[in-house]
Specification:
Shape: globular
Number of strands: 8
Helix content: 40-55%
CATH topology of the largest domain: Rossmann fold
Number of domains: 2
Distance between the termini: 55 Å
Number of helices: 16
Largest sheet: 8 strands, mixed
CATH architecture of the largest domain: 3-Layer(aba) Sandwich
CATH superfamily of the largest domain: NAD(P)-binding Rossmann-like Domain
Radius of gyration: 19 Å
């Protein structure tokens, strides 16, 4: 008998990861916020709102009922946006099976509390770190859903749990690696969205590969600086959840954060971009919390600072690029 996984959130990444889990041999119950979305997914066998044209495996079924989604599931995958996780999680908790493992797909730092998603889950669900995992890597949803080869990191402080989850989501097209550095994976995943916004702004302004490569590289240095300050393993930031995710998100037109940044670079306001899309660009929310986290730790974070200023309308994208060049010169390392 197949094991059951509940995936809470039928957006593009939640749906794509449901395909991975089904291909890995699990029965997947995909919870959709809107009842009509669940009905449509079951009838059409595709998520026409987010991943049109991609057929879902028979092992994936959708529901609007959280009790039905969670019944018998020993793994609970959280695919809701980072800034709404705290509000959404209590609605699910009464139906979560005893001992079930939570897996966070969201990449962000919570506004106000400055907590990572694993910390929010631990606090709200009152569970220990051995029952909380995160998945992070170069995983653009549309490519994952099309079963293009990809790798990722499954991180949990309990290595046995990470290995169990690795086995559950290992499929012919998806290769997961394990890690115990939850903090490093989460910091890499959250920060890369902010860097991708910055890269997108540069592209929107008409700049080329030298500019974007410089921003990606300095963005990685900035990410590592803050993550290591918080206690991350620096090698994590060189791996799939750091450099890998950063390159994919900054380089691909499929990236919501890079696309959001491009529109800012082309002169649109944050409000205009929000009004034009139903997709969530996590970096547009998390840039403020990452900046605040860096400031509280006294860590230099010029990209997070500048992106926050632009997203909130206090700086233009042209002024941002000029400010980067005009910063005081210094050594690259040290």
């Amino acid at each position: 008998m197949n094991s059951k996984v509940a995936v809470l959130g039928a957006g593009s990444w939640g749906t794509a990861f449901s395909i991975v889990l089904a291909d890995g041999g699990n029965d997947v119950s995909l919870w959709a916020r809107r009842e009509e979305a669940a009905v449509s997914i079951n009838e059409r066998r595709e998520n026409s709102d987010y991943l049109p044209g991609i057929e879902l495996p028979p092992a994936v079924s959708a529901t609007h009922d959280p009790e039905q989604a969670l019944a018998g599931a020993d793994v609970v995958v959280l695919g809701v946006p980072s800034q709404s996780l705290r509000d959404n999680l209590p609605d699910f908790l009464p139906y979560v099976q005893p001992g079930a493992v939570f897996v966070s797909l969201a990449k962000g730092i919570e506004l106000g509390s400055l907590k990572r998603m694993s910390q929010v889950v631990g606090e709200v669900a009152d569970v220990g770190p051995e029952r909380i995992a995160v998945i992070s890597g170069p995983n653009l949803a549309k490519e994952i859903a099309r079963r293009e080869p990809a790798a990722s990191v499954v991180a949990c402080e309990d290595e046995d749990v990470a290995t169990m989850l690795q086995q559950r989501c290992h499929s012919p097209a998806f290769r997961p690696y394990t890690s115990v550095d939850v903090l490093g994976c989460e910091m890499g995943g959250a920060y890369k969205n902010v860097v991708a916004l910055c890269v997108g702004m540069a592209v929107g302004l008409g700049f080329g590969d030298n500019t974007t490569a410089s921003l990606i590289t300095r963005g990685l240095a900035e990410t590592a600086r803050l993550a290591m300050n918080q206690g991350a393993n620096p090698l994590t930031l060189m791996g799939l959840a750091g450099l890998g995710d950063l390159v994919a998100t900054c380089s691909s037109p499929l990236s919501r954060n890079r696309t959001f940044g491009e529109k800012l670079g082309q002169g649109m306001t944050t409000e205009e971009i929000y009004a034009s899309t139903r997709q969530v660009a996590e970096g547009a929310k998390s840039c403020s919390s990452i900046r605040a986290l860096a400031e509280s730790a006294d860590v230099d974070a010029p990209i997070a600072y500048a992106v926050d200023e632009v997203v909130n309308g206090r700086m233009t994208t042209s002024d941002m690029m000029a400010a980067f060049i005009n910063r005081d010169p210094k050594a690259e390392i040290g």
